[in-house]
Amino acid sequence: MVVQHYSPLWQLLRDYQLTSLFSPEKVGANTRHVVETLVGVILTVFCFGMQIWHLMAQSLVSYVFLAYGGKKHSHTFVFLFSMLYLSICHIYRQVYDYGGYTLDITGPLMIQTQKLTSLAFALHDGRFKDQAVLSNDQKEQAVKKLPNLLQFLSYMFYFHGIMVGPLTFYNDYLAFIDGSSFSKPVNSNECGTLKHPATDLNKLVLKKLIITTACGMGMIILPSICFPPEIINTPEYYNMTFLSRMLYVLGVMTIAKHKYYFAWKLADAVNNAAGFGFSAYDSLGNPKWDLTDNVDIRGVELSTSLKINIESWNKKTTIWLRRVVYDRAPFANTLAVFACSAFWHGFYPGYYVTFGTGALMTVAARQVRRHIRPWFQQSQTHIFVYEAITFIATRLANCYICFPFLVLEFYACFNMYRSLYFYYHIATSLSFLFFSFSLDLNKKGIIKRNDSTNYINKPNHVISSKSTSLTESKQSNSSIGSDVKSE
Fold first, then answer.
1. Catalytic amino acids?
2. Which residues contact 120 (CB under 8 A, 6 or more apart)?
3. Is 299 within 8 Å of 218 (Cβ atoms)?
4. How many CA atoms lie within 13 A of 28 on its CB side?
5. Beta carbons of 358 and 485 less than 8 angstroms apart
6. Nearest-CA neighbor of 364 among 436, 300, 452?
7. pLDDT of 194-208, one tens digit each?
8. Rounded Cα gap, residues 469 and 378, in angstroms
C-alpha cells in the first residue's frame, strides 16, 4: 500500500533522470519506446505484482482485434471486449472488497480501456472511414496505420502515465516520443522569437508540486477539523436542520475533491517532468503545458454554470467520452455518455444515481441558461445578480449530484436525498417540464410569438446577448462538457 501511494513521487525523481538520458535529441524513437515499455512494466509489477496480467490480457487481445477484426467491426470488438473485461474486474473487486478503497489493478485498467477504445476508433477513422464524413477533430486524431507491437505496448505502459493517467491520445503520445510535439505552430505571428518549450519547465513542475502539496494537506487535515464524512448517514446528521444538512453535504464534498486534485495534479507534474504535456504556444508565444492537465480547480470551484463545472473536472475522460460515445451515438447522445461513464466507473449503485441525476440536471440547466440568461444581460447589475445566483446553484448542484459517489449504496443515497427532501430533483424536474412544455407549444403554434417584436425598444447589447445566447445554446448541444460528469 505504501508503494502504491508513493510510486508517483518516485516516478517524478526517475522522470528527470530518464528525460535527460533518453531525450529525442539523443536517442531514436524505438529506443524511447523500449524504455517507456520496460520501465512501465517494472513499475506496474512493483506496485501490483502479478495483477499486471490483466493489463497484458486486455491489451493483447484488443491488439488482435485491431489487426484481424476487419474493416467494419474491429473498433466495435475492441470497445465491447475492453469494457467487458474492465467490468468483470470491477465486479470481482466489489465481491472481495465491497465499499473499500484498496488500490488494485482496476485503476490502471480504467485508463487502459480509454487508450484502447480511443485508439480503435482513431484507427477506424484513419484506415477505413470516408474522410469526407469525418469532423475536423476526427481527422486530426485519425491514425492511418496500425502501430507495431512495440509502439502499441509503449502507449499502453508508458511509465509516467500507467498509475493514474491521465489519458492521452495516441497521436499526442507519438509526437512526444519522436520529439515533433515541440514543433507545434503558434497561434499568432506577432510573437517574435519563440523560446524552447522546456526552458522554464522546472519552474512549472515546481508550481504544480506546490499545488499538489496544498491539495494533499487539505485531503489529510481538513476532514478531521471540519465536516468529517463519517457523520453522513448517522443520527447526528439527520438531527440537523435542513439548511445545516445541505451545507454539511456541501462542505464534505468540497473537501472530498482534494484527493482527486492531489492525484491529478501530481500525475500532471510527473508527465511534465518526463517532457510530456506540451500542447502548443499561446497567442503571446508562451508554451502551454496542459496536455496532461486533468482538472481546472478554479473552473470546478468558481464556475457559474454546470456546463463549465463539468468541463473542468476529469477533463481527459470528458474528451474521451465525447470522441468515443457522444460524437458516434446514433441517438440519445447525452444519455449514452452518462451510461457509458457509469459503466466505466463500476457497478456501485451510487455511480448510477450520480450519472442519472447528472443527466437530468444537465438537460435542465441547458434549458434554463438558454431561456433565462438573456433577460439578465441588460446591465452590469443584472449580470452580477445572475452570476451570483448561478454560482450558488452550481455549487449546490455539484455536491448534490456527486455525493452518491461517497456513500455508494442505493439506500444510503436514497436516505440522503430524502433528508434533503429531493429539493434539487424536484426543482430540476419542474424546470425541465416547464420549458419542454412551452417549447412544445411553440412548435405546435399554440403559443404565437412575433420574434421581430422582441427586439423593439431593446438596447443593442440586449439584442447581442440574445444572439450570443443562441450561439452558446447551439454549441452546448454539441459539447460533451454539458453532457458528462466523470469522477
1. 314, 345
2. 62, 65, 66, 74, 75, 78, 79
3. no
4. 3
5. yes
6. 436
7. 778 888 888 999 999
8. 13
